[in-house]
Design a protein that fits this description.
The complex is a heterodimer of chains A (233) and B (379). With 233 residues, chain A is mainly α. Helix content of chain A is 82%, strand content 0%. In chain A, helix 1 packs across helix 7, helix 7 packs across helix 9 and helix 9 runs parallel beside helix 12. Chain A starts with a helix and ends with a helix. In chain A, 36% of the residues are buried. The C terminus of chain B is likely disordered. Chain B has a 6-stranded mixed β-sheet with strand order 6-7-8-3-9-10, with helices on both faces. Chain B folds into 3 domains: 219 residues, Rossmann fold (3-Layer(aba) Sandwich); 72 residues, Alpha-Beta Plaits, CATH 3.30.70; 77 residues, no CATH class. Classes of the chains: A mainly alpha (233), B alpha/beta (379). Chains A and B meet through helix 1, helix 6 and helix 12 of A and helix 2 and helix 3 of B.
């Protein structure tokens, strides 16, 4: 399993995807940070600024496009190139393969997230940020990422076309994002809305469990798809 | 040791592999032969556990591939058709990754990778990206991926496709070498290759096993006539008269004139009779000089074609019968239908009772049409 993670992470950086992901990710956060500094009315709230940049619309929007870009190739490409045959005839079980793919995509997200530490550093230099709130926000963000990455990988296992895999994830993300605007009960299904709770600095147990459950569900679905394809191939 | 027991693979209504059973002993090289779409790759994919069989068991070195996939897969090195590999890795990285996937012990991993790279002749290109390698080298990289970890069983799907003659020879020798220590199953449609490398051949057609035997046995089994080609200088035109003098000759056939004035003949006799000695005795006595005399070898190719044709013929016959029946039915229908139609037309027109000429014309037109249609049908 470790071998697959190592190779996957390496491949992300052998192709432009890894760099593009981290680059756009940081660009979006930097723009948010900049806007926050520039247009905040009157006094800059150094205590909350780190949390605010996570709640910016462009951040979320870009994010909904970035994760699909990251996960679209994970199984689709293997299937298209036939390397799936090598992977699935190795002694490593399908469950481990799926988990390895999930972890390696998550590692890229975490690497990108690591760079946002710069913002904490800057706010620390100029003021006293609310560190616990910032950490809870990060936790919530990681949980959200896990859920999205797992879904992205599931989408990728459905098709050998990367673009279709990406479209499936993007459409799903956008729907879950705008749903609360139209249906009042939609917020129960909106993973992004749940994330806003974390930005207040509280760890919501119910939402945490929802995120984790969603992640596990997507991974199990992926494993099922892969296993079923074995007899349908 | 591989045991394949009553394995069937169905895709909906289509049966790709139909109840096949065979086993491969340790250290044996077995060739899977068959035309395109016969089920070779499907069979191999089932043995490697890439696809699941609809029915039946496959046991690799004592481990059932569907019950203990991890253990069973560890015994197998697989080189899939079309040699898929990770294009963005270098040859060495790829082999190393395959070794890791096969759970090769970390202590010996580096040496193992180097060994395999050496064995497959990849030393010069090991640090090049796979996407920049030529087809032959890609093939070797894939081969290296199958070999690494020293698995007991090697499954090679068309290992020499797309190679140049020198590379083919090298790969063949490598496979022969490997056959001493590994159990090898390979598929191919190059028959000479199979007869050279393999100890046993399994011929598959339309998902069914047609024959399992050694290449030699297959050749002799399917041979029913003894054919000798003889090139002679025959000034007195006596050659065709030989047939009367040697009873065992079934047919004696003139084939061609050569530029140097010699002629080639084909002599056919029963499979049990070898005429070569007799010909050497009798021809000089008739003042015929032998320039060349050779026995036509029945190749595996002939055997293959015969076996495939046999199964094909049976099927074709059935289809043919059905076709004939259909045709007859159609013609019958037509014959019954056409007069009826024209009769109806006539009645209609008589009822109208006007424009007799026009009626005639149209009737003529009708019968013309009918004639044409009939001709078309016959054509």
């Amino acid at each position: 399993m470790w071998a697959i993670i190592k190779k996957e992470v390496k491949t992300y950086f052998l192709s432009p995807i890894g760099y593009v992901f981290i680059g756009i990710f940081l660009l979006a956060f930097s723009i948010s940070f900049n806007l926050e500094l520039r247009y905040s009315s009157g006094i800059i709230d150094f205590q909350k600024i780190f949390v605010y940049i996570f709640t910016y619309l462009p951040t979320i929007l870009v994010f909904a496009f970035l994760i699909p870009m990251l996960t679209m190739r994970s199984f689709s490409e293997e299937r298209k190139n036939g390397t799936e045959q090598l992977l699935l005839t190795s002694p490593i079980s399908i469950t481990k393969i799926v988990i390895a793919k999930f972890i390696s995509a998550l590692i890229i997200v975490l690497i990108a997230l690591l760079f946002t530490g710069i913002f904490i550093g800057i706010t620390c230099f100029f003021g006293t940020p609310d560190i616990p709130a910032a950490l809870v926000t990060l936790l919530g963000f990681i949980l959200l990422c896990m859920a999205y990455v797992a879904f992205g990988i599931f989408a990728s296992s459905l098709t050998e076309n990367q673009i279709i895999a990406a479209m499936i994830s993007i459409v799903t993300f956008v729907i879950t994002w705008v749903l609360p605007e139209f249906i009042s009960s939609g917020s129960n299904f909106s993973l992004i809305n749940m994330f806003y709770k974390f930005t207040t600095g509280q760890i919501d147990i119910a939402y945490t469990i929802t995120y984790l459950a969603f992640t596990v569900l997507c991974l199990i679905l992926t494993i099922t798809v892969m296993q079923r394809r074995k007899s349908a191939r | 040791m591989i045991e394949v027991k009553n394995v069937t693979k169905k895709y909906g209504n289509f049966t790709a592999v139909d109840d096949i059973s065979f086993d491969v002993k340790d250290g044996e090289i077995v060739g899977l032969l068959g035309p395109n779409g016969a089920g070779k790759s499907t069979t191999m994919n089932m043995i490697t556990g890439f696809i699941e069989s609809t029915q039946g068991n496959i046991i690799v070195n004592g481990y059932d591939i569907s019950k203990k996939p991890g253990r069973a897969k560890k015994q197998i090195g697989y080189m899939p058709e079309g040699v898929p590999s990770y294009q963005e890795l270098t040859a060495k990285e790829f082999v190393k990754y395959m070794a890791e996937l096969k759970l090769v012990n970390r202590k010996v991993l580096k040496d193992e990778v180097q060994n395999v790279i050496k064995q497959t002749g990849l030393e010069d290109v090991q640090n090049k990206l796979i996407k920049n390698l030529s087809r032959g080298y890609k093939q070797r990289v894939s081969m290296a991926g199958a070999l690494v970890g020293n698995p007991d069983v090697l499954i090679l799907d068309e290992p020499t496709v797309g190679l140049d003659p020198k590379q083919i020879l090298e790969i063949r020798n490598l496979i022969k070498e490997l056959g001493k220590r590994h159990t090898v199953i390979l598929s191919s449609h190059i028959l000479s290759e199979v007869s050279q490398i393999c100890e046993r051949v399994i011929i598959i057609n339309k998902g069914k096993i047609v024959a399992i035997d050694t290449p030699e046995n297959l050749e002799t089994k399917t041979q029913n006539k003894n054919i000798i080609y003889v090139t002679v200088e025959d000034k007195n035109e006596k050659m065709l008269g030989i047939k009367e003098k040697v009873k065992d000759i079934e047919t004696l056939e003139y084939i061609k004139d050569n530029e140097d004035g010699t002629k080639q003949y084909k002599i056919v006799s029963n499979a049990e009779v070898d005429l070569r000695k007799k010909l050497f005795d009798i021809l000089p006595k008739e003042d015929i000089t032998i320039f060349e005399l050779k026995k036509a070898e029945v190749s595996l190719e002939d055997a293959f074609m015969k076996l495939i044709d046999d199964t094909q013929e049976n099927k074709d016959k059935k289809e043919c019968n059905i076709d004939k029946k259909n045709k007859q039915d159609n013609e019958k229908d037509k014959k019954e239908k056409l007069p009826k139609d024209s009769a109806e037309n006539n009645e209609k027109k008589q009822k109208e009772g006007k424009n007799e000429n026009l009626k005639k014309d149209s009737n003529e037109q009708n019968s013309k049409d009918i004639k044409e249609e009939k001709e078309g049908g016959e054509k």
